[in-house]
Every structure is written in C-alpha cells, then in structure tokens.
Amino acid sequence: MKKILKWGGIIFVVLIVIGAIGSMGKSGSSTSTSQSGTGSKQEEAKLIAKVGETVQDGDIAFTVTDVTTVTSLGNQFTKKDAQGLFYVISLKIENKAKETKTIDSSMITLTDSQGRTFDRSIDGQTAKGMAQGKVDLFLQQVQPGLNVNGDIVFDIPKDATGLKLLVKGGYFGKGQQIDLGK
C-alpha cells in the first residue's frame, strides 16, 4: 500500500511540473516580439504609455491623470514629512470584466532609472486620506463597467529619475508601464 501511495505521489508531482513547464512556454512565446528585430528599443518605447493615456492589463484599465510632488502630506493633526519626496499619482481604474474586481497594493508599483522598485507609502497615503476624509483607494471594489478615481502616494529619493508606474490587472498580470515624465 505504501508503494502505491509513493508512486501515486510521484506521478502527481511529475504531472504538476509538466503542466507548469507547459504554461511557461505558452506565456513566454507571446512576449518574445520585443526582443527581436533592429527596432526593439523603438517598439519598447511605443509600448510604454504616457500620463493621460490608458493602458489595460487583463480586465482592468489604468489611466494616470495627474502627478504632483510634495514634501509633506496631511494637516496639522495628520502631517507626515517625506523621507525623500512624496509623489502623488492620480489614477482612474476601470473594470472591464463581467464581475467585481478588488484593487490592492500589489497591482501598482513605481520604478526608476536605477532599477529600484517602490511600493506605495502607507504613511503618506494615510496622512493624505485622513486629512481629506477619503477612504484609501486600495481594497476598494470596482463593479463591472464602472471605475474608481483616487490617488496613490510614493515616498522616493529626491534624485530619482526615469519614473515609470507598473500597473497590473491582477496577481498574475504581465503588467503595463506608464512613463510619468519625471
């Protein structure tokens, strides 16, 4: 009986590995176009949206509508100073699916020209939200065919350049980039 269970477990693991390898091959083949040809840098530049342009990843569309920088956020009771500089990015997020979607912080990150990745600033986000009486954009549900508007706050070094927002339509989304022009 132990041998049967052992072999059954081995076969199960082998099938999972084969399935994982098969799915990686499919996703890898659809993204290989940007690596070939002489104009690959030009093609890559065309794939990166700018402020005001809409990008879609999966069933979620994102539009950066404004970018501002400040050294502190909040009011006299909730004021928070940035360690570097707060970037407040205004977003419109549209649900193009047929079911409700929930927005969370893993869907949006910021990168710079040095390859550094920044998550949203919880301190800056909280100070801004409490001062304005607004609910945080994250963990908000977006109903099918509707959109939400809100701000996301990042605290990044003052000398950061080449800023791009990476937005994903879900945990397994490939992501799209939006050049913030900074």
Which features characterize this protein?
182 residues; 3 helices; 5-stranded mixed β-sheet; 11 strands; 35% strand; 4-stranded antiparallel β-sheet; Immunoglobulin-like; alpha+beta
Give a short summary of the structure:
This protein has 182 residues and is α+β, with helices and mostly antiparallel strands. It contains 3 helices and 11 strands; from the N terminus they run ααβββββββαββββ. The protein has one domain: Immunoglobulin-like (Sandwich).
H/I helix tally: 3
Strand content: 35-45%
What is the total domain count? 1
Mean pLDDT: 80
Oligomer classification = single chain
How many extended strands? 11
Describe the model:
- Helix content is 26%, strand content 35%.
- It has 182 residues and is of the alpha+beta class.
- The protein has a single domain, classed as Immunoglobulin-like, CATH 2.60.40.1240.
- The radius of gyration is 21 Å and the shape is globular.
